[in-house]
Amino acid sequence: MVNGSILFLGLLLLFSIGGLSLAIQVIFLILLFLLSVLLSMNIFVFLRKIKFFIATIALVFLFSVPGEVLYFYGPLSITKEGLVLAGFNIVRLVNIFTIVFILMKVLPRDFITTSIIKACLFVTYFGVKKERLIARVFLTFEYLDFYRNAKFTFNSLGADIAKQINSDYSEKIKPNLPLVTFGTNDFFWSGSFAVAFLTIQFLLI
């Protein structure tokens, strides 16, 4: 029940935070930072892992969004609107990644994996095999664990990624292949999530 409530609130925040204003997202970022401290998570180590994503977003928005020019050098110019959008999307990206890694820190991995599989079971009605769905979700979390714990350098980046891609997880996946069923509690959580999500979206309009 506790794990379900945590996952419910985490996913609700994860899917809704993109529609919030920059000021509110900054407040959430501060709260997430304080929560990460309580959980003994070093958020600065985490930020270094996504520094390339942050740099890419900053460059794209700073130099490609038209608007009031704040600075220019030759053909390059930084606009006020680009600066605002860059800040907004960087804060949103950091919030999203932080929420995901906090959930992975707090909740048992098997619980998260099973919950996501249950949420995706509807795709089996469109011809997707349940075993393949379970395997793909499992591999997604293997990659998340790898990128969360790995220490990348430019010299070894290609080799590290190739090693992970070529790794064989078949023996780890097999114990997780028993069919996952959708119970009464799952219907309750799914319905509650849908109602809460739609309510938040309506309030944000």
Automatic annotation (TrEMBL):
<feature type="transmembrane region" description="Helical">
    <location>
        <begin position="6"/>
        <end position="39"/>
    </location>
</feature>
<feature type="transmembrane region" description="Helical">
    <location>
        <begin position="111"/>
        <end position="128"/>
    </location>
</feature>
<keyword id="KW-1133">Transmembrane helix</keyword>
<feature type="transmembrane region" description="Helical">
    <location>
        <begin position="85"/>
        <end position="104"/>
    </location>
</feature>
<keyword id="KW-0472">Membrane</keyword>
<feature type="transmembrane region" description="Helical">
    <location>
        <begin position="187"/>
        <end position="204"/>
    </location>
</feature>
<keyword id="KW-0812">Transmembrane</keyword>
<feature type="transmembrane region" description="Helical">
    <location>
        <begin position="51"/>
        <end position="73"/>
    </location>
</feature>
<dbReference type="GO" id="GO:0160147">
    <property type="term" value="F:tRNA pseudouridine(38-40) synthase activity"/>
</dbReference>
<keyword id="KW-0413">Isomerase</keyword>
<protein>
    <submittedName>
        <fullName>tRNA pseudouridine synthase A</fullName>
        <ecNumber>5.4.99.12</ecNumber>
    </submittedName>
</protein>
